[in-house]
Amino acid sequence: MMNRWKNLKQTLSKWFSIPWYPILFGAYPVLALMAVNVGQIKLEAAWRPLIVSVLFAVTLFVLLRLVLRDWNRAAFLSALWMALIFSYGHAYITLTEKVKDFDFENWLLVTWLVLAILFIVWAVRRSPSSPLAMNVIALGLVVTSLWQTSSEVRSGGVHRVGAENAPVDENLTRPENPPDVYYFILDSYAREDLLKKSYGYDNSAFIESLRERGFYVAQCSQANYIRTELSVGSSLNMEYLQDLDPAFTPDSIKRRVLWDSYKYSAVRYNFETLGYETIAFATGFAWSELDDADVFYTPPPFSAGMTEFETLFMQTTLARYAQNFGWVDADAITGQNFRDRTLLVFDSMDDIARMPEPTFAYVHLISPHPPFVFGPDGEYTHPADFWNEKKQYPADLYAKGYQNQLTFLNQKLLDAVDTLLAESETPPIIILQGDHGPWLQPRDRRMWILNAYYLPQQQEKLFSTITPVNTFRIIFNAYFGGNYDMLPNVSYFSPVPKLYEFSEVKNNCK
Description:
Blueprint (H helix, E strand, L loop, with lengths): L1 H15 L4 H16 L10 H22 L2 H28 L6 H22 L5 H21 L28 E6 L5 H8 L4 H9 L3 E2 L10 H10 L3 H4 L11 H8 L2 H8 L3 E5 L13 E3 L10 H8 L5 H4 L5 H18 L1 H5 L5 E7 L29 H29 L5 E6 L16 E4 L16 H10 L10 E3 L9 E3 L5
Parallel strand pairs: 1-5, 1-6, 3-4, 3-5
Antiparallel strand pairs: 2-7, 6-7, 8-9
């Protein structure tokens, strides 16, 4: 036993006497950014920037070794320079938020240049003779980031729900000819009266087209909550969050249980238990993607040249100047990724409708929500044309982009509905539902949503003030022998960051 311990100690001492820490310092910025955004961005998005960052670290390390002719000095200087390179964007973003009416950019660049020169002197004169401490620090940083990331990754699927009180029903029965179910979440899609009052936009032709196709449009419907994750988390679990899980308390700002219950909901559980195939689409936000569904549609990862995570990582480093020099347009890349995901949904409707198995399709469209990347006829629009230099949306530009996107979305939705109705042997169930209203609106109007249902032979169960929390209670009762009680139709506002500090918003629609 003593010999084994002695051999292990000698092996570790040997390995930690080699200056390999620059490689880990190259990996750390990517892993740390991934850990911070683990709920927003999928893990595989980090692979390419991770490889590029590590290769950059190795190349810099080797080049400095050729110049300095000393591995320890080269390792130390490369680590110091990488700290400058990978921290520059963070410093720039912080100063942009904190410093007003002062052009700090040139001063920041000069400061970083001076530090780079001072680091040369430091590395040449006082670099550590042993790399042990630096190896330990680098390893600790990487392990911490990996731990933070892995602790937020959850898996699931059939027979899994994410909330303690998810109202699943084990006694549902599948009919002889089960209808396909299509649940469209149309992000920020407002009610007809809001569009008229706030934008002067007449949406009556679209609403009438839905009615002609057999839809019931709830004219006084409100969202149950003000934010997507709250609203859809409640809808997919057929329950108010206050009653869904003890984690949703007013003093909490944590989202892990919320996101988990969103992805592994009572609705999904019920349909999978009934033998339905689940279908979902990429949204660009990892927390909202049912990526372990039976069929998950996503565009090629680099269809726009870069992913959103890669552009985010670039913005946190000195490479942010690639956009200033015109080499990379990060905003256009983000816009194209959103376009690709939206168009993929509509291009897939025919294939989904023809699937032989009964399907539950969860279709979350980030539209008419920003970024505004579609003109009224579907033409490309640049996201940056609708915000100011601080990437904030002025009311007039927001209204213009929103209406452009809404006009295009309306036509694509009607085409999709026509495809689903024409290609389905059994009349399908189709829900077109906003999760909340547009930005820059008073608190009450942000609750006013489009809520339209195609429920074959069950329309009489619907009413003008129905809210999303009751959507699937009605569907499971009407088509699958469920025994769900109808809940009161209530709307709740909550501020950021106190997501679960709810106050009721009255419905004054008549």
